[in-house]
Design brief:
260 residues; 11 helices
């Protein structure tokens, strides 16, 4: 990469990267490619998955110790919100494989440090949204019935409002993070452009991205209760890299340097 590419004039770059139209089979292709990455780099992928699994169970245990089911749900939702940031190393593994390199965890850490400022900006955005969501979740308690043993009909409004609010926040976070972090890893692009690019791609491929979001949710849910997060979290992370590669045309932005 020539030195001139290190000094990009932001005003000369597009505001958003174009996206491709996807077919409904795309999420399954991403999962297959993600599985191929795990088979190519099993040690690196599963070690990363093991660490993420420990974090998720630690969050659940702390919530249980606090003794609040609502807090547990909120903290687990928060973990899902920041999950894309934690999966940065998995994107790096897939990128190394795609570049014909032997994946090295040390290089993942090196890339993490290189993109630390962008990661922190993105994490801060997610944290603000999560805090707003947590506040909204506590406010929803006004709809909880006062009866000692409410039946399902009494809980209908509470469950309906809670589900709607949770779905809204989840949709915002998903659209913003679905493809933005792989783009930040791959290209010399700012956080705002990456986030808007991700949102634009989700809106232009609503059905496909809805299916992809449901697959992710199902994998996390099944993995958490069947102790298979060690495999399913890396699978999602690697698949997300391939989702970005197939969906976003980011050739207008210079690529970050390849592994030395």
């Amino acid at each position: 990469m020539s030195g001139s590419s290190d000094h990009i004039d932001p005003s000369s770059m597009p505001f958003v990267a174009p996206c491709r139209q996807l077919d409904m089979g795309a999420p399954w292709r991403w999962m297959r490619l993600g599985w191929q990455d795990i088979r190519t780099a099993p040690r690196q992928s599963l070690l990363y998955g093991f660490v993420l699994m420990l974090i998720s169970y630690a969050v659940a245990y702390l919530s249980y110790q606090i003794g609040s089911f609502i807090m547990m749900v909120a903290m687990l939702a928060g973990f899902m919100f920041v999950g894309p940031v934690l999966a940065f190393g998995l994107y790096s593994i897939s990128r190394q494989i795609q570049g014909g390199k032997k994946p090295v965890l040390g290089y993942c850490l090196q890339e993490g440090r290189k993109h630390f400022s962008n990661e922190m900006i993105f994490a801060a955005i997610l944290l603000v949204v999560f805090l707003i969501w947590a506040r909204a979740a506590s406010t929803i308690h006004i709809f909880f019935p006062v009866e000692a043993e409410p039946d399902l009909s009494d809980l209908a409004i509470f469950l309906g409002v809670g589900t709607a609010v949770g779905a809204l926040f989840s949709a915002v976070i998903f659209c913003a993070s679905a493809l933005s972090l792989p783009m930040l890893l791959d290209r010399k692009v700012d956080v705002v452009t990456a986030v808007i690019t991700s949102i634009n791609a989700c809106f232009r491929n609503k059905g496909v991205m809805l299916l992809w979001g449901l697959i992710i949710t199902l994998c996390v849910f099944v993995g958490f209760f069947t102790l298979t997060l060690i495999v399913l979290l890396p699978l999602i992370g690697h698949a997300t890299w391939h989702a970005y590669q197939e969906t976003i045309d980011a050739h207008n932005w210079p690529a970050h340097g390849e592994q030395e």
